[in-house]
Design a protein that fits this description.
5 domains, 37% helix, Phosphatase 2c, domain 1, Beta-Lactamase, Bact_Sigma-Reg, alpha+beta, 22 helices, six-stranded mixed sheet
Length: 883
């Protein structure tokens, strides 16, 4: 370290770093720093100078050379002084016998400067360590080392103090709820609104404000702290009405940073100048209670969106407290110990729908069951045009208790405001994410969210899933379940994150099921989770019931499964069902089962080869997979096959399309017509290579079919059914097609220019539809096929497959390549830690590479960059891991 090879010296440096970084207050920090500088660097008296970018001056943060001068303004003599050169050049400066090395002047007291070191963080100089007097020969090496330790330790301490301040903010919010309850049991409403005013002003560091309450359809000023009724009413909205009346009517907050120039308002009648202004409505359950007005006095910093967000959170909760004053009083009388938590629970439940909305052609119901007095789960229905569409939302804030409840309340306010007023829900969610991130990241919180807009006429949903659990659509007519996977990261993790929106078409009798992870992860006494499969079984079992009965039945099943086991998370679920569409039958309609779908029987030669025995396959098996009978599994397998083929073959877009079309036909026939969607049956696939020939073999476990259905014709007749056209295309596009095992299997051959034949050095070990695994010269490489790794079941499958792959492999060399991955679930991080532990336990090494900047930031936030070796690309990773 620092060019010194002495292990004792290195240990001393490490001890010094640990000692300073362990300090949790400035007094202790500077006490230890003073002793450390004197003992190790021989610096007897020193000063820490911090630079103020706004004022372009230094201030004294600490010194043992000046008396009672902390935070005092600092002067230094000359542009060529040690301090000025150190700051401008960013390198240490020492007098080295110079008689005029410069001095520091504080409150008229002057102290010579012997040497100084820059304090640098992220290549930016923010301060100076100046030495005034030595206790022997000054050890410049130790001065340099200590300055580097100070650079990070001082910032960490400031962040720690800031975090404590933010924790104090949260404590203030909790105190506001507690104070409201105490006031309801002893005082009148006037005292409560005064307390609200005091709390709101303290949160945003303002001194002037007022609270107006609605009385007989008029706003009446109930609290006036330095802001007269006449002054606030003199501010008009551009529409001509007073601003306070406009905010009351629109029920929307108003932030005015420049009252004199903001064209939304007219401040010409103001008798005194204002710096900035927030006007915010008090309302609950769509009943307006009043408005809060806050003015930042001239000379102070202007209000920001963060200030308004804090006000939104608190006034929203406090307005509910006003409306439910009697409930507070009853709670205090019945149980004082649980008073605050009971009130908070009631407040939170009041934020959720009391009854389901009426929707044309649809029915919906939802429920939220908290495991504690308050929680972070949330669901809602709302619409600005309920005759045409409805917004439905389910969210889950990480953690429990008051903090999560407050975040949930804030999120509800944001979602209702922006989803109703911004047509692009991707943009709306992006704005909400940025508004919430400041409050959430300081507590390491995040929020998963599923927001959808249901269009009654189109019978379509437009949705975004921000890291939320998989939404499920059960289609009874086809006995199939459609999974609505996450389309982006959870809220509160990454600023300016992108959220992809998607659409899903609904059919008659479809059931849409949204839920939070508490349902899926509900555990019984044996620590077994209820799981996604049981949820799907419930949807199938209760599909004929109305939505309220479906919801009740699922809750009952989960309750019966968990028994007396204590639950660790809230349960929230929403069930939406589309009504049966009544169709009028036309006179000329022919029942579908009566329509002909046979192949032509005009000739006797088969369209493709048909043999009873197993085909002779010559070549090396390069890929083998067995999947369950499921259309989603089929799609994953198809992606896998195409990826493997493209790794071996120089294939153009047209050829790739043709190959995919043929393989899709073969696999779909196995799933739909061979196994008839029977989940107990399997579909088996193998890929063989011999020289320039690839052989694809697929077979199912069905009953086969009559070969007479495959008579030879030159082109498909216009009345051919869909499968007949597929067989014809397979024959035309491939070099050979052979059916075997009475039609249960099909062999497809195609000649290609093989560019990357399978060798002993490169071996495909793919066994997972979501990732590609190769072994190259003893190094295992894992890459991902999708740009999103969000599906929990897929994540667990990848995790278990990799663990199995490296199990009992001493000194395993593993690379996980995240190239093209744009989003990943937070659970991926814990799985990577598990894989890392497994590799290290076997004296192996794990390397990550090609991380997207957004994902890399998550690793930095969670400090996982200190655990993992992370490299820019696969080539560097291969080079490092080989050596």
């Amino acid at each position: 370290m620092f060019g010194i090879n002495d292990k004792t010296y290195d240990a001393s440096i490490l001890a010094a770093s640990q000692e300073l970084h362990a300090c949790n207050d400035f007094s202790l920090f500077y006490t230890k720093l003073r002793d450390m500088l004197r003992e190790r660097a021989k610096c007897k008296r020193f000063s820490i100078l911090l630079y103020n970018n706004r004022l372009k001056t230094f201030s004294l943060d600490y010194s043992n050379a000046f008396d009672d001068a902390w935070y005092a303004a600092v002067e230094h003599d000359g542009d060529d002084s040690l301090i000025q050169r150190c700051f401008s050049e960013g390198i240490p400066q020492y007098s080295v016998g110079q008689p005029e090395a410069g001095s520091v002047i504080v409150n008229g007291q002057s102290e010579a400067v012997i040497g100084c070191e820059p304090l640098i963080i992220m290549d930016q100089i923010y301060g100076i360590l100046a030495c005034h007097e030595t206790d022997g020969t000054l050890d410049t090496m130790w001065m340099n080392i200590i300055s580097k330790i100070i650079s990070t330790a001082l910032i960490n301490l400031q962040l720690y103090e800031q975090t404590n301040n933010e924790a104090s903010e949260n404590a203030a919010k909790l105190w506001a709820i507690k104070s409201a309850g105490e006031l309801l049991s002893h005082m009148e409403l006037d005292s409560l609104v005064v307390k609200i005013m005091e709390l709101v002003l303290s949160i945003v560091s303002a001194q002037v404000g007022s609270i107006m309450l609605e009385e007989n359809d008029h706003l009446v000023t109930r609290v006036e702290w330095g802001l007269s009724d006449e002054t606030i009413r003199s501010i008009a909205h551009s529409s001509g009405v007073p601003l306070v009346e406009y905010v009351k009517q629109q029920k929307q907050p108003f932030l005015i940073e420049h009252p004199d120039t903001d064209k939304r308002v007219n401040c010409s009648k103001l008798s005194s100048k204002m710096d900035s202004l927030i006007v915010f409505p008090l309302y609950t359950n769509d009943r307006v209670l009043g408005v809060v007005n806050i003015v930042n006095p001239l000379g102070d910093e202007k209000f920001s969106s963060r200030d308004m967000d804090l006000v939104i959170t608190m006034t929203n909760l406090l307005s509910i407290s006003i409306e439910n004053a009697m409930l507070y009083k009853e709670a205090l009388e019945q149980e004082r110990v649980q008073e605050q938590l009971n009130i908070a629970r009631k407040i939170q439940q009041d934020l959720m729908p009391v009854e389901a909305p009426k929707m044309n052609g649809f029915s919906v119901d939802g429920i939220n069951l908290m495991c504690d007095e308050t929680g972070g789960d949330y669901f809602d229905y709302f619409s600005s045009n309920p005759e045409k569409f409805m917004h439905i939302v389910v969210g889950d804030v990480s953690g429990h208790g008051i903090g999560s409840a407050l975040v949930m309340a804030s999120a509800r306010a944001h979602i209702r405001a922006f989803a109703n007023n911004i047509a692009d829900i991707s943009q709306a969610i992006g704005i909400i994410n940025n508004l919430m991130i400041l409050d959430m990241e300081k507590n390491n919180q995040f929020m998963t969210l599923f927001l959808m807009t249901l269009d009654y006429e189109m019978k379509k949903i437009h949705y975004i899933s921000a890291g939320h659990e998989i939404g499920l659509i059960y289609r009874p007519g086809e006995d199939m379940i459609i999974e609505l996977e996450s389309t982006g990261l959870p809220l509160g993790l990454v600023e300016n994150a992108k959220f992809e929106d998607r659409y899903a078409q609904l059919q008659e009798n479809d059931i849409l099921f949204l839920y939070t992870d508490g349902i899926k992860e509900a555990m019984n006494s044996g620590e077994e989770m209820f799981g996604l499969d049981r949820i799907k079984q419930c949807l199938k079992k209760y599909s004929k019931l109305p939505v309220d009965k479906i919801m009740a039945a699922i809750v009952n099943d989960v309750t019966a499964f968990t028994g007396n086991a204590q639950q660790q998370d809230d349960w929230t679920l929403v069930v939406l069902k589309m009504s049966k569409v009544k169709k009028e039958r036309k006179k000329n309609d022919v029942p579908e089962e009566k329509q002909s779908c046979n192949f032509s029987t005009e000739t006797k030669e088969y369209l493709v080869k048909f043999i009873e025995d197993e085909p002779d396959i010559d070549g090396v098996e390069v890929y083998h997979r067995v999947i369950k009978t499921d259309l989603h599994e089929k799609e994953h397998l198809l992606d896998d096959i195409i990826a493997v083929t493209q790794n071996m073959v120089a294939i153009d877009e047209e050829s790739s399309f043709g190959l995919r079309l043929c393989l899709d036909e073969a696999l779909t026939n196995c799933v739909l017509h061979g196994n008839k969607l029977d989940p107990s049956k399997k579909v088996t696939f193998s890929l063989y290579q011999k020289e320039n020939t690839l052989t694809f073999v697929v077979f199912d476990e069905g009953d086969g079919f009559d070969p007479s259905r495959l008579r030879n014709i030159q082109e498909p007749a216009p009345w051919f059914n869909e499968n007949g056209r597929g067989v014809f295309l397979m024959k035309e596009l491939m070099d050979d097609v052979i059916y075997f095992r009475s039609g249960r299997g099909v062999l497809i051959q195609k000649n290609y220019n093989i560019t990357s034949p399978v060798t002993e050095e490169t071996k495909m070990i793919i066994s997972n539809p979501n990732c590609m695994v190769e072994e190259v010269n003893g190094i295992i490489k894992v890459s991902f096929k999708n740009n999103k790794i969000l599906n929990e079941s897929n994540i667990e499958r990848i995790h278990l497959d990799i663990l199995e792959l490296i199990d009992n492999k001493p000194e395993v060399k593993l690379i996980i390549d995240f190239k093209n991955v744009q989003y990943l679930s937070s659970s991926v991080l814990s799985k990577l830690v598990s894989i890392h532990k497994k590799a290290v336990a076997q004296d192996g090494v794990l390397c990550l590479c090609s991380l997207d900047p957004v994902i890399l930031k998550i690793f930095e936030i969670t400090k996982l960059t200190k655990l993992f070796t992370i490299l820019p690309d696969i080539d560097q990773a291969m080079e490092i891991i080989q050596n």
